[in-house]
Amino acid sequence: MTTNAKQHTPAPPDPRVAVVTGGSRGIGRAVSLRLAQDGLAVVVNYAREAASADETVAAITEAGGRAIAVRADVAEEKEIAALFDRAEEEFGGVDVVVNSAGRMTLSTIADLDLEALDAMHRTNIRGAFVVAREAARRLRAGGSFVGFSTSVVGAQFPTYGAYTASKGAVEAMILIMARELRGRDVTVNAVAPGPTATDLFLTGKTPEQIDTLAKTPPLERLGTPDDIAAVVAFLGSPAGHWVNGQVLRANGGLV
Fold first, then answer.
1. According to its UniProt record, which protein family does this protein belong to (predicted)?
2. Which stretches in the chain have pLDDT values below 50?
3. Of 3, 168, 171, 246, which sits most exposed with the smallest number of CB within 10 A?
């Protein structure tokens, strides 16, 4: 028996959706590109550099992925709420939130500029909590939140006191947030990179300082943004969903 009825191919499921703060440059850009490569639609957040965000989106879309750029200050709750609104309007929901936006000022504690301290902590602490709060409210079942700390929390390098204090606050909230989301099927973790070859890390350091730091880990090199992006992608994937409430030190064995 023959039939003229057309065979309909089921429409592919909508992609999982990621929001990446600070997603236009450095590690955040590498994370955005990697998540898009893994099939997620990506909302690339930026605070100031629209051109860099547009370049990141263009790289994703030219490779066949889906992405948009959205400006928002991570420390401003209304702007972050609007960022998540845009993700939901454009792609239907949010499954992975990566808070890679950050600021670093290096100084001995004795010489610390308190205005620089306030500015850094506004982004690194208040911003981390604002993004985490919105993620806790919006992430769909099976989702993941990934924050960023630093391996200097363990290494305790001089001049990193204020920066490390701000990232220690991120580590302190990770397991608590994971426990608060009991029953939601949402994981909460942080990645703590070691020395990584980004503009944020390299600026202000001499070649000798960079070489010394590169040789410190047993693997004897600096990390790359792609090294860190791979760890983030694992934590945000179904394969990494049994990891919860943890801080992963991605540093080549530094500490």
1. Belongs to the short-chain dehydrogenases/reductases (SDR) family.
2. 1-6, 9-12
3. 3
